[in-house]
Automatic annotation (TrEMBL):
PANTHER family, sorted: RIBOKINASE (PTHR10584:SF166), SUGAR KINASE (PTHR10584)
Keywords: ATP-binding, Carbohydrate metabolism, Kinase, Magnesium, Metal-binding, Nucleotide-binding, Potassium, Transferase
InterPro entries: Carboh/pur_kinase_PfkB_CS (IPR002173), PfkB_dom (IPR011611), Ribo/fructo_kinase (IPR002139), Ribokinase (IPR011877), Ribokinase-like (IPR029056)
Gene Ontology biological process terms from the UniProt entry: D-ribose metabolic process
Domain Carbohydrate kinase PfkB: 2-251
Any GO CC annotation of this UniProt entry: cytosol
A GO term, aspect molecular function: ribokinase activity
Full protein name: Ribokinase
SUPFAM superfamilies named in the record: Ribokinase-like
Family the entry assigns: Belongs to the carbohydrate kinase PfkB family.
Amino acid sequence: MAAKLGARTAMVAKLGNDFYGNNTKENFKQHEVDDTHVKQTDRDSSGVASIIVSEDGQNSIVIVSGANLLLSEDDVHAAKDLIRHSKVLVCQLEVPPSTSLAALRLAKSNKVYSIFNPAPAIENLDPQFYTACDMLCANESEAELLTGVPITDEQSAKLAAKKLHEKGCDTVLVTIGDKGSVLHTSGQEGLHIPADSVVAVDTTGAGDAFIGALAFYKATMPTLSLVESVKRASIIAAISCKSRGTQCSFPSADQLNPALLTL
Ligand SMILES: OC[C@H]1O[C@H](O)[C@H](O)[C@@H]1O
């Protein structure tokens, strides 16, 4: 998503030496994503995700991690110059948590802004994640698993965001689908930011579109307020729900209202 909006983007990842791995590398090249640190291995097959979309556009995903679980702290260290010189680092949990934590720590020690998406959510997340990242962005089910708060509406999202903030996270965003998101930072506690309502055809990857767009704004328009960045990222994520597919439903810069891409 960040690359489609025009940010200089790189991935650190592990793929199998197979059809999916080759296609994924090719996809990165087509989108001008630096794949220097995307390595292929013979030790496992590429990770795949089988996705089912219901008639109302909601999705269920079965992840087979494969080579993702071979991405190691050594791989993070091999990419340390890339991470040190980045403006924003995005991490999640489809690789070993210790690998993501190592990357977040590296970012923190080099004053690189980091966004942590605890997806898929795991119970007993290492509490160091909360202080290692600058922003934690979780959807309803992820925030619920991490806090024990069932999230059904804006109020419960505010409570979960507060609890995540109390765990040590500087900035927390809890997304609540078409109801928007809740932002909790020291200056803005429990601020509800509404989202555009669209007829969803396929919500798959909407969270990825949202986080990729946030990373784009932070990296390329650092003076844009966080609230405005969230509003714009919500619009972009909503657009991605209007067509089928995941990355192919993400709008590129030339498909967006130019006002979304100017200060
Ligand atoms: O592509 C949709 C989802 O499947 C993948 O496994 C990622 O989790 C992503 O959010």
